[in-house]
Amino acid sequence: MVLLGAFSPSPAVAEEVKSAFKGLSKNSDKPIDILSDTLTVYDEKKLAVFKGNVRASQGSSTLRAAQLDVHYVGGANELTGQPDQQQAAAEAQPPAAGDSGPDGQIEKIEARGSVVISGEDNQTTTCDHLVYDVPTQKVTVSGNVVINSDEDQTTTSDWAIYDVAGQKALVGGNVVLSQGQNVLKGDRLNIDLATGESRFENTGTTQDGSRRIRALLLPKEEKKKPGKEKKKKAKEAAQP
């Protein structure tokens, strides 16, 4: 019980993963401010490609990457701020049934290359690739995933999926959770973000092929109280 008390991963892991991506969900109704070196719009494909030192901010969350692909529906004018040449002609015609209109709505965001997500409470997540599916509110990160908190806790994995609506997270592929000298290793980590409960499991796909969870838990060292130290020295001095 002493060992387990020294390292309680469940609520800490849940809060860490939740904080890492909550900016994408908490501020989903706020505008996204994107800066980049270049922007290319492929309106026929409903795709806007931002390249070069990309920085996207939404509320308290900031995303940096080499490239950001924004998939949208409707017109591109709402995304780029440029006037839509077809908008005037479209407005002159009666709207067809089921027509979403000229306003652009983001459907999916894809970030590639040295992706860094910075959120509240000094939470940062780095990865090679990120996909944010807006309608389903699911964030998928993959490739050298590292989630850091300001409480000396780090989670590394091959991939992670954050279900915003369902308040669930799944971290998979050689998962390593470390806090100080304490380490937990497994193949998959299921997290209930609503309750803070987390469950490690192995599917036999780890590097060593085992299905067992490995944990190294070190108890915290008790700080010596000044009073006890003085009494101990006095007792030793009194002995013949």
Return Rg in Å.
25 Å
Q: What is the overall silhouette?
A: elongated
Distance between the termini: 40 Å
CATH class: Mainly Beta
Give the H and E element order: HHEEEEHHEEEEEEEEH
What level of helicity do the residues show? 10-25%
At CATH's second level, what is the architecture?
Answer: Sandwich
Q: Could you give the count of β-strands?
A: 12
Instruction: Give the biggest beta sheet.
Output: 12 strands, antiparallel
Domain Organic solvent tolerance-like N-terminal: 34-164
GO molecular function: glycolipid transfer activity
Keywords: Signal
Organism: Methyloceanibacter stevinii
Tell me what you see in this structure.
It contains five helices and twelve strands. The chain has one domain (2-238): Lipopolysaccharide (LPS) transport protein A like domain (lipopolysaccharide transport protein A fold, Sandwich), CATH 2.60.450. Strands 1, 2, 3, 4, 5, 6, 7, 8, 9, 10, 11 and 12 form a twelve-stranded antiparallel beta sheet that branches. The chain is 19% helix and 46% strand. The chain has helices spanning 2-6, 9-26, 77-80, 87-92, 226-238, and strands at residues 33-35, 38-42, 47-58, 61-73, 105-118, 124-133, 138-148, 153-163, 168-179, 182-192, 197-201, 214-216. By secondary structure, the chain is α+β, with helices and mostly antiparallel strands.
